[in-house]
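Problem 12. The chain below contains 249 residues. Write out its predicted structure in token notation.
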Amino acid sequence: MTSNFYNKVARKFGNYHTDARYTQEYPDNNPEEVFKEKLLSVSGKDKLALDLGCADGRFTLSVAKNFSYITAIDTSSGMLDAARKLQKEKGIANVTFEEQDAFKTTFDHSSFDVIWSRRGPTPYVESFRLLKPGGYFIEIDIGEKDCQRIKEVFDRGQGYGKWKNSRLKQIQKQATDIGFTVSYAKDFLYNEYYKSYNDLDLFLQGVPIFEDFDSEKDKEYLTSFVKQNSIDKGIRMERHRVVTVLQKY
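Solution.
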């Protein structure tokens, strides 16, 4: 269902980004910046990289200059079309976008120096196979408490009801069982504040928090959530990310 969802988003918005207006407030660091910092710390002009779940390719292309070559994969043909269009606009040659299943790729063993997943799939077994000895798998994943309040109001959603199942601990166990060494692992909890009801509605249309979100059918739920979570800064959404760095020895 997920690839169909992203194809729908690509058809509607042209890429993975809506124009929803919001601000963010971090009690600690911005997890996206931490993820990028960790990724660039192991980059190199001699290194081959694999991006798992590249979506519209925006992030992939932004870091392309730091690697010798990047292969970026996704299962959404719509997102890949958007990525290739952006690549052509930017004139970046050292990236290839391919439609592939991250859990069962066609690449040879030990093909890459660095693999990353930015809120995408987390195929640890396949990534371990694809990495060269000494290579890194870096990810930013969605934590178990992400958007918990709105999911409770809607009584459904991505990871619904799994608030007590630590995603960080799951990653550490799965990774070490396969043979990875965990060199960094941290939870990040922060808030987003949406400017208006319409901004939050627009945001929900473009993300898989509710893959079946419908502005009309879900209006009652969204109205209730907005009433409960509106403060001076905006409509508050609690976010949760997990950043990990794994190495294959």
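Discussion. The mean pLDDT is 94. Students who got a different answer should revisit the alignment rule from Section 12.3.
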